[in-house]
Amino acid sequence: MQAGGQTVLIDCGRGVTQRLIQLGVKLGAVNQLFITHLHSDHVVGIPDLWLTGWLEIPSAQRKGALQVFGPEGTRNMMESLEKAYEWDIRTRIADQKLAKENVAVFATEIKEGVVYERDGLKVSAFDVDHGDLIKPAFGFRIDYGGRSAVVSGDTRFNENLIRHATGTDLLIHQVAAVRPELLASPVFQAILAHHTKPEEAGVVFARTKPRLAVFYHFSLLGTPQVPAMTEQEVVELARKNYSGPLLVGEDLMVFRVGHEGVSVGK
Ligand SMILES: [Zn+2]
Ligand SMILES: [Zn+2]
Questions:
Q1: Ligand 2 midpoint to CA 39 (Å)
Q2: What ligand is nearest to the CA atom of residue 130?
Q3: 41 C-alpha to ligand 2 centroid (Å)
Q4: Which one of the ligands is nearest to 219 CA?
Q5: pLDDT band for position 265 (50/70/90)?
Q6: How far is the CA of 30 from the centre of ligand 1 (A)?
Q7: SS3 (DSSP) at 218
Q8: Which domain holds residue 127?
Q9: Last residue of a domain, one of 81, 110, 139
Q10: Are 56 and 157 contacting, i.e. CB atoms less than 8 angstroms apart?
């Protein structure tokens, strides 16, 4: 998310660093990272962002610490990463004369509420429900200049998300689905029980009424015999409960949240 000359990142799964570079976003511009929860698919890209962003190459050049805001466990994870990459950090300081202060990490464990506010850009965390053992798990709402965007993180259908996302301009929401023939599988049942189904997401969109709803984080499960549901089928199921603007999110998609509405580019 970019607003007011700031770039903040929500979650850092695989490939994020490459995608930022493809978009022309300087890695060094990302000083604030907000983590919804610590499942690996949301954090596995952190070492790449952190350590590539530290380099002196033109696409990186972070100045100052990487600030990481996340649930309980975030500090331990970041300290452990510092240990894991100790050789790389020590060697680059000695060999490339990189500044130690630019590889520093400042981890903050957050609770529901406003977690960051600077120059009119406000980031709020709100509790979502990603399962009984995955607490806390957050969604985030970004507010700037009377406009807003919400990212659901991973969650089951959740009233608190609806409360915080109501009236937002842009709602980016995860979804999970399998075909009925596969519902007997305990593995698939467990995954579905931690996420929002397309019809439920349709209810979320209908009640929050964003100017644009976008699906992301598709957990579409299949087997060699029974193929995964397509993204278009997911949209059709959501359409049972929602008739407003809805898009399938793709890598490198760019949303511009203006006062007149949300426009989409690539
Ligand atoms: Zn998760
Ligand atoms: Zn996930």
A1: 6
A2: 1
A3: 5
A4: 2
A5: confident
A6: 23
A7: strand
A8: 115-266
A9: 110
A10: no
pLDDT band at 221 (very low <50, low <70, confident <90, very high): very high
User: Do you know the residue count of the chain?
Assistant: 266
Residue 93 CA to ligand 2 centre (angstroms): 34
- Between the CA of 167 and the centroid of ligand 1 the distance, in Å, is 25
Domain of residue 30, CATH code: 3.60.15.10
Judging by beta carbons within 10 Å of its beta carbon (0-12, 13-18, 19+), is residue 240 exposed, middle or buried?
exposed
pLDDT score of 266: 65
pLDDT digits (tens, 9 = 90+) for 128-144: 999 999 999 999 999 99
Instruction: For residues 104 and 126, state if they share a domain.
Output: no
What mean pLDDT comes out for the span 112-140? 97
Read off the pLDDT of each residue in 7-15 and give the average, rounded to a whole number.
97
Q: Is 174 found in the same domain as 143?
A: yes
| Angle between helix 198-208 and 231-238 (nearest 10) | 50
Torsion region of 5: left, alpha or beta (phi above 0 gives left; psi -120 to 50 gives alpha): left
Distance 177 CA to ligand 1 centre (A): 15
User: Is the pLDDT at 117 greater than 70, yes or no?
Assistant: yes
- Among 59, 91, 110, give the residue marking a domain's end: 110
Residues 218, 126 share a domain: yes
